Amino acid sequence: MKAFFEKCRGGGIAFQGWELVIMRAAFSWLLWRSLPTDIPYGHQPVPNGLGSLLDLTFLADTGLFAYLRIIYGGALVLFTAGWVPFISLGYAAVLITMAGGLENSQGAIGHHLQLVCMVALSQWAAYLSLLRRGEVVWLPPSHESHQRATNWAILVIVASYVTSACVKLIASGGLWVIQLPDISLQLIKTHANVYYDTLIPQSGWIATQLPHFIAAHPNLTRLFFAPGLLLELFAFLALFGRRQAMLFGLGLLSMHLLVRWVMNLSFGAHEWLLVIYLVNVPYFAWLGIKRLLVAHAEPQ
Amino acid sequence: MVRLVGLVVALLLIGEQFPFSYFPMYSSFDPTTDYYYVADEAGEPYACVQIFGTSTANVKKMYRARLREMVALRDAVEDEATLRERRTAGEATIAYLRGLGANAGAAVPAESVTLMRVILERSDTGEITKRELPVASG
What we know:
The complex is a heterodimer of chains A (300) and B (138). Chain A has helices at residues 2-8, 17-34, 50-53, 62-81, 85-103, 114-132, 143-171, 176-179, 183-198, 205-208, 210-216, 218-233, 242-263, 268-279, 281-297. Chain A is mainly α. Chain A has a domain at 13-171. In chain A, helix 7 packs across helix 14 (268-279). The longest helix of chain A has 29 residues, at 143-171. The two termini of chain A are 41 Å apart. The relative contact order of chain A is 0.11. The mean pLDDT of chain A is 90. Chain B is of the alpha+beta class and 138 residues long. Chain B has one domain (28-137). Chain B is 41% helix and 20% strand. In chain B, helix 3 packs across helix 4 (83-103). The termini of chain B are far apart. The mean pLDDT of chain B is 92. At the A-B interface, helix 3, helix 5, helix 6, helix 7 and helix 9 of A face helix 1, strand 1, helix 2, helix 3 and helix 4 of B.
């Protein structure tokens, strides 16, 4: 128990410089692919969040948005290099948040951009705090500053999953697992949505038979889907170190892939954020190679 | 850990205010649900993304947002909406979809289209039933 509370007070993961460069490059790529190429929304019929504070419809100006997007690309290159992130990442974070704000002010709130925006904004806030400490900001910030920003990204990702678990428990009155067999209707709905979006017939066992199988086998369904709730609820354990982060990252990634497979519903940005910040493949690949080399170098 | 708890509490309190979210997707399940699609006068569905530039999941959210706004004016909730209110919200959604499709450069049909609602129900024995009804045309 004492060790648990000591871990709770932990100051985040100590990354190496090259890991942080790879993470910035991968996150920049994710930010680039998350920003739409053009914005068709000329109105904000149901303003939400940032959209209720600002009129964001100027982004629908195709010519202007093209320029803003070019600058966005340049800013992401600068951010990847680690230069002036309080401007480079700040610009990118603000632009994608405004684009998302406009998209979510159409009366339909989607959930593919929130986590990307929160991760970008939280890192920007971490860099901005350098200004308050009087650090020289025109030069690349210190290794510790990049590390601090990255640990904030991980914290925000983990917090979003824990929040999602709490909402499941609150909204269902603690009966989420009991209600699970009714997910069968959601399966039919998501496959029908894909059909009516594209008119491509949704055939195969998953689309046609699985919902009825789930509806008819409630306890099996609970056994199968309940681990997802536990993974989300205990996602905070990922903050305890690299290995825990990787394990929970892989667990949550598996959950998303399962949802993608069963429900035809993808949360691509969430999956990539888990891969980039929690699973951290480059570090574990480097560690594995290093250990192999050491093992081979040892005298027989 | 204090930061984590603070963030979770903040996200729960702020709710759905972009860029913040408490990620309420599939947070509870009911034995009844519904989905929507857009059809032509003969009842044949349109490929929503191609024709109107948005998904049917968004069409449902847009329709419900308009319906909630409408019934809130008389201090009612969505479930208490009358058929007339549903039709008005549906017509407003169709008008919005036509504009959205045109903005996206899609070939929006000139003739009247119908917003269809499909209601799914799961019985205590696990049997699933489906019924369809038109919401509005325009």
